[in-house]
Amino acid sequence: MGHTSKSPYLKYADPEPFPILNKHSHYDHLFEEMHELEEKGEILVFRITEENKPKYVYTRTGRIKTIPTNKLWHHKSCGQCGNIPGYPASVMWFMNKFGLDYLNEPHQTSCTAWNYHGSGTSNPVALAAVWLRNMHQAWKTGYYPLIHCGTSFGSYKETREQLIFNKELREAVKPILKKLGRLTEDGRIVVPQEIVHYSEWVHAMRDEIAQLYEKEGKPKGIDVSNIRVAIHNACHTWKMMADDYPYDPEVYNGQRPAASTAVIKRLGAQVVDYSTWYDCCGFGFRHILTEREFTRSFAIQRKLKVIAEELKADIIITHDTGCTTTFEKNQWIGKAHGMYYPIAVMSDVMFSALACGAHPFKIVQLYWNCSNYEPLLEKMGITNWRELKKEWEDVVKYIAELEKQGKYDELLEFFKKYDLYEPYSKTSDGFKYRRSATSDMPLFKS
Amino acid sequence: MAEQTQVRKYGYNIPISEKTLQVPWEEKVRVIEEVRSDFRFKDFLFGCLNCGVCTASCPSNRFFDYSPREIVQRFLENDIDVLYDMMHEYIWACSQCFTCWIRCPFVNNPGGLVIIMREVAVRNAFEATKDLLKPYGRVLLKVMTTGNQLSADMLQPDFFPDWGPKMLDNMENLRAKRMAIPFDVGKAVKTAWEVSLQTAIEMYQIWRETGIFELIERLDPNLYNVIMDIVEENEERWEELLEEMGEEQA
Fold it and tell me: ipTM of this predicted complex?
């Protein structure tokens, strides 16, 4: 399938799968360096094994990137969990459907890179320590990290490059990890073989997702063939460390990022092109929170207006936290200037889950969206969305009532059936000593 | 003054604030040297054709007086006054999208240069930086103490009236709605997911070892005090928990 280098972590497609513009990638060289550091005993490469049921994709340099699909450690996104909870829930829903194993535990921080890019109040050593602590935790559990957030993914790729190429960074971060007990027993830093974004997992699983759509979505009357989809690729996935993200001959002959577009095409929806596809969303890290006039102006004028006027699309598909939030929350305000372009916004995995028959509110959690998703549901054939919404609202009422009455045991029993992931059943250290950063009593008792 | 004129021989007449002109030359050189001595600098700046592709595709350029090409050019010409001036407000316009980086034929990384400049601005606690980051305090408090940047309870409709009427609805009966999220650690309200105490304690150690707490103290002493109250309280809880665990094992 490909030709290898002296490193087992670097392999190129042969013949080239599409015209390759960047054949001398500095970034790819890090896989050779990584191997050398491993040989010298400085690092331990956290390898993707057969247990992870690997699949293979191409990067824009023609490198074959290994994507683990099973036995995954969910490295969650603070923006997704805090603001778009149907995003991670959809990923887990698919994993349950495919019978894949995963671990979703509380022993993880954010990457803290949103803060870094927004405020500058961190530094490369702190970022590296946070990343390597999280990776060590995953390694300790034996589950391979799957990074949900685009900024975490971009930041971790960048930090890994800096770590591998700069001895001074390794020397600065190692004593910190030692104090934390986050080195291997023989004193090595744990570095993952590949840094993998959830959208790469969706991309690698697109055939299985399309099969599930045929098997479970279509029989429910769901049809996405007439849905017009505008794709927005997230800057921190494909512009930041650009040589480490999937490209594929089936998506613009390998000249644009393939993730998201490929799965939407595989589902049979209509991917429609627009002139500002390469523009960012206007999120800006600091701007979305404290310079919102910039964020909303950019989102409306450079994206929402263009997508509405050029395409009349039904939905914008994203694959990151910030872009989803930016497009989704900055529509209504456009009314103030006669620039209201209502459109559904959701991530590739949320749309795919809807297509495959996931509950729009219990799983995809569309309730949290501020944009108009209802016309999309109607057009997809999910015409009973009002009843489904009522079902979810009844669940909320039931939970509120049980909590009011202090019936926590009943609540736990309810969650065991309701949740995708049985509460407390699978952390790496059990429930007993579990306390959270905000309370002594985690979950609903906090 | 003669030195300054000499260095700016290729100057583009970019206006420089009075404040910057009053800062001693040696101090400005020291600050710019702090940026240049960062280990990443060599990987972020190469040549420049002055083609302007970076600026043409820059989102911030469309709405702010900001140009990634200027960042690159000023560094190549070592324009100390302009660079020092940029470090107060100019650099904060960058959206950190890195469109400039992927498009530059020389693989310059203006967004990367900006992040080094921001770090140095924060380390030096410039007044403009303090003012600019004031509204960001809530986020800093959350990320420094819990390891999450965002939580459901931060998205109050009062803070986001421009997000529309559905926001009001979302926040009503928030606890029960969060509990209806179908995975256990996602049911948290004060954090994005439930972060374990042990994990937070390790993160505090990282902040201490890497000087992040000191940065915050220089930037906003009041915020620092609030953060440290929470940190110390959590550290005490952790010590108590370790003792309990020790007793149980004994």
Answer: 0.94
